[in-house]
Amino acid sequence: MSILYNCIVFIATFCLSVVALFNKKIKLFVDGRSVTFEKLSVFSSEDKVVWFHAASLGEFEQGRPIIERIKKEFPSYKILLTFFSPSGFEVRKNYELADVVCYLPLDSNKNVKRFLDVVHPTMAIFIKYEFWPNYLKELKQRKISTILVSGIFRKNQIFFKPFGVFMRKSLKAFDYFFVQDQTSKDLLNTINQNNVSISGDTRFDRVYEILQQDNELDYITEFKNKQYTVVAGSTWKEDEKLLVNYINNSASNDEKFIIAPHNMNTNDIDELKKSIAKKTILYSEKDGKSLSEFDVFIVDTIGILTKIYSVADAAYVGGGLTKNGVHNILEPATFGVPIVIGPAYKKYKEVVDLVALNGCKVIANQSEFSAIFTKLKEDKDYRNQLAQINKNFIKDNIGATNATMNYINNQLK
To answer: Would the pTM of this model clear 0.90, i.e. be above it?
Structure first.
């Protein structure tokens, strides 16, 4: 099986280099890896390094609270942050608390040995998932302390199938698993992985900390003008169709909307603006304008959605009407905002849990969308009820970072 896997990695490496000629995202994937070892050359043999690996941006957010604690409590250690996906690396390539941010070289034996020779990490921390057999095998052989944080396992994963022996073996590299739920712990126990504890999801700690920072944006405060405001975050075209229909046909005159599209394509942004019958302005057009006079504010930039959620009276989180699934609900939840989503959410534990608690409402069509937002606008007691559920949900799930750091402290001292 190992020979077959390595052949697949070799073929994949070649195919990606060809596809990169025609695909912009794959080009980032390939070109970014071409300079990885150059970036890693800053590490010396005397450096003490903690290596974090995240598949993409969401996993980075789970690892971020731990990175911040290690940087604070163990300042002599250097931090290496690797990504698999361009969507994570391109957003966080300048993350200030990491000494090096780069793409993870593909999982070939040659890459793995070279990578670990250069980095020589004291500890390797994988976030949520991404199990690369050659990396894990070499980490185990070199006796490098390796843990998984905010892990989540499902019964349909290869580890729990009769033919999954090869992948099950790779899990033996982990000295400890910090998982999000009882199901994950039970599944690992069935394959004789007993070095497991339920710590929860470190993202709850991350979003709870947001409440301690200054979240005010002057231009958003001016736009809101103390009026009822719906924030629609990370929206796709499918979400925007429902939203625009509601704005044009059902919204009241004292109701404002802030839309932060997932896609920053200029043509799509312009098309969205033109489809809205009410007075609409883009973030890029805001300077010198009397923002309080507008009804809709479209955010054609990145990096400010979290702060914008702080002014929301109700939120729609996009992605739940696409195959990709709903985006991050924890940020609006931490501000105690009632949340509405589409039906594609079942693979996200935190969303499943919040839907079960009734703090997050699910819609599937225009009539359901319009009905729930009309109710949220007209019924303040109902809004407050959902808001309290969401605040409590965040508070009840913090603590994963402390649980993980108790273990890490013993390893790094």
So the answer is: no
The burial of 76, by beta-carbon neighbours within 10 Å (0-12 exposed, 13-18 middle, 19 or more buried), is given as: exposed
DSSP designation for 370: H
R_g over Cα of the chain:
23
Render pLDDT for 271-298 as a digit per residue (tens, 0 to 9): 999 999 999 999 999 999 999 999 999 9
CB 346 within 8 A of CB 356: no
* Under 8 Å between Cβ of 297 and 220: yes
Buried-state track 110-136, b at ≥16 Cβ within 10 A, e below 16: ebbeebbebbbbbbbbbbbebbbbbbb
C-alpha distances out from residue 163 to 166, 171, 303, Å = 8, 15, 43
Cα–Cα distance between 158 and 163 in angstroms, integer? 7
* Contact criterion met (CB below 8 Å) for 259 and 280: no
| Token digits of residue 274 | 């033109």
